Amino acid sequence: MAVSDLAHASKTGVSARGGHVDIARLSVLALVVALSLLPLLAGGFLLYSLSLCFANALAVLSVSMLVRYGGEVSIGHSFFVAFGAYAVAIVEHRLGLSIAASLPLATLLGAAAGFVFAFPSRRLSGIYLAVATMALALALPEILIGFEKFTGGFEGLYIAQDLIPGIPKALQRYYVALAVLGLVCLALAHFRRSAQGLALLMAQAQPRAAEAIGITRSWARVSIFTLSAAVAALAGALTGFASSTVSPNSFTFFSGVFLLVGSVVSLNGLSLPAALVGGAFITLVPTYLAQAGDWVPILYGVALVVVTLVANAGDLRRFLPRGRGR
Amino acid sequence: MTVPAGSNGLVAEGISLAFGGLQVLNDVSMTLRPGVITGLIGPNGAGKTSLFNCLTGLYHGQRGRSSFAGTPLNGLGPAQRAACGITRSFQNLAMCPDLSLLENVLVGLTLKRRSGWFSAFVPTPAQRAEQRDAERRAMAALNELGIGSAAHEKPSDLPPGTLRLAEIARAITSEPTAILLDEPAAGLNAVETRDLTRALKRLMRSDLVLLVVEHDMDLIMELCEHIYVLNFGSMIASGTPAEIRAHPDVIRVYLGDDADA
Ligand SMILES: Nc1ncnc2c1ncn2[C@@H]1O[C@H](COP(=O)(O)OP(=O)(O)O)[C@@H](O)[C@H]1O
Ligand SMILES: [Mg+2]
């Protein structure tokens, strides 16, 4: 059972019809059941790590959405993740509301921020769009420190409110993050068959043909970026809730790069297993490799190169004679 | 041929198009009347696809005007012309590899679909009904062209003939008021060509504008009631199949071609 197995399951699960979809579905269901029962066995630190992992998995999904449906790469999605996390913290500090209110609010604000960025950049694509998103990620720490009154500056803010008072914190974090991640994966599976989902895939693969049936490139770019930013902000809101704190050093330029790494590692999959692989990679690898210290970015780099090569090898298989590997 | 103001149909007048120093279209006019299958023929490189692209808004000629049902089209892009009810197929296959054949046809209905962003993520009864309805229409278009059995296959698993017919299915599924087909029979075998010819004849209604671009004379002669002939970017003849067959310039162009080949 390796990365490629999960990713394969995810690919068929998202798109194909036929016999082995059911096996893929059943194994995802088994995974969900196992994760739901895990708190019966596992202790606090593992649950804490896993809730962060779920939140990161969602952030990775937001980048993968942009790749799959928009054909675009963002280096700066940590901006929208931070946006969601700070929205939760600020709503709690200023309005005294829990994530029951701030989770949907953060998502809407993330969508709004995504739209505000995407609309003027709707003619950008490829490397130009990636560089523009990089500017967002680079500006983020300055913005957070500049608006110290709201964001708490270097110190950041605590997120203390429970969703349901009385239930242990670790369980709340774990189940909220798992439930949101699961629901987003279901929503994305539905989206794949929707009119908008089909239109976006068409616009990406055949832009001229898409225009000829009324799907404009700027509509496609603005839509998918807005959606992706909304999911990123939702992921940020979960990250804030799961870690009980937000501060500028959780959202550096590298967080944005790592999200992209996570997306590449998960082969840009949009299923639960794929997202978990990406999320686990960017959460657990640095935690357990903390001893490696300065080596973490290098290990990331190596992993990125290896995965890219493996993923491309998969693409190259398509050029082999028919009937092989099918 | 001058066109009285307010006439319906798809009308192009005096279109000229150049790429750098290359004059691709030279003062070309044509009138596509509703209820008539119009053909556009000409040797390779004559400018058929370019004229087609001018009609669908992909290219904009340096001179000339076009209008549809009396409404000027100048300055409108492809998506806006699609919204006017003009659809097209592409000479180069334009299938999305991630979508099944049915879904590739289904996207042709995008402008007609009414489900909002919320129901794109959350299934609702109304959305399911709308989805079923759209799928039924796309399926009907596939069946009309005799390729319904391939509906759930991926484009990469299908022969080019089937994909070309699917491309046409996508153009007709939204029940447009003008359909422009660029070399629809290229790569089709005899059976598929016959299916295509039949489907296009069945499709014809009194309010439909239908243009078929081909360099295959036989298909055009069988299918079309009115034919335009383009050569080196200029319209050299127009008329009924019988008139075209007898036209000295057309004979020269096509016999010349044969002599070369
Ligand atoms: N986008 C373009 N840029 C430059 N030249 C073009 C372009 N599109 C078409 N042409 C030129 O216009 C001429 C006519 O091409 P086309 O319209 O495709 O002919 P046909 O469809 O009749 O075979 C060709 O010489 C072709 O090279
Ligand atoms: Mg052509």
UniProtKB/TrEMBL annotation, chain A:
Membrane-spanning residues: 23-42, 74-91, 97-119, 126-147, 174-191, 224-244, 250-267, 274-292, 298-316
UniProt entry tagged with the keyword Cell membrane: yes
Pfam families: BPD_transp_2
GO cellular component, one term: plasma membrane
Domain of life where this protein originates: Bacteria
Keywords, ordered alphabetically: Cell membrane, Membrane, Transmembrane, Transmembrane helix
InterPro entries, per database record: ABC_transp_permease, LivM-like
Xref: PANTHER family: HIGH-AFFINITY BRANCHED-CHAIN AMINO ACID TRANSPORT SYSTEM PERMEASE (PTHR30482), HIGH-AFFINITY BRANCHED-CHAIN AMINO ACID TRANSPORT SYSTEM PERMEASE PROTEIN LIVM (PTHR30482:SF20)
Source organism per UniProt: Bradyrhizobium centrolobii
Primary location group: membrane
Annotated localization: Cell membrane
The keyword Cytoplasm is annotated on this UniProt entry: no
One function term, GO molecular function aspect: branched-chain amino acid transmembrane transporter activity
Topological relation to the membrane, as annotated: Multi-pass membrane protein
Protein name: Branched-chain amino acid ABC transporter substrate-binding protein
From TrEMBL, chain B:
PROSITE patterns in the cross-refs: ABC_TRANSPORTER_2
GO cellular component, one term: plasma membrane
Alphabetized UniProt keyword annotations: ATP-binding, Nucleotide-binding, Transport
Signal sequence annotation: none
GO molecular function, a single term: ATP binding
Protein role: Involved in beta-(1-->2)glucan export. Transmembrane domains (TMD) form a pore in the inner membrane and the ATP-binding domain (NBD) is responsible for energy generation.
Name of the protein in question: ABC transporter ATP-binding protein
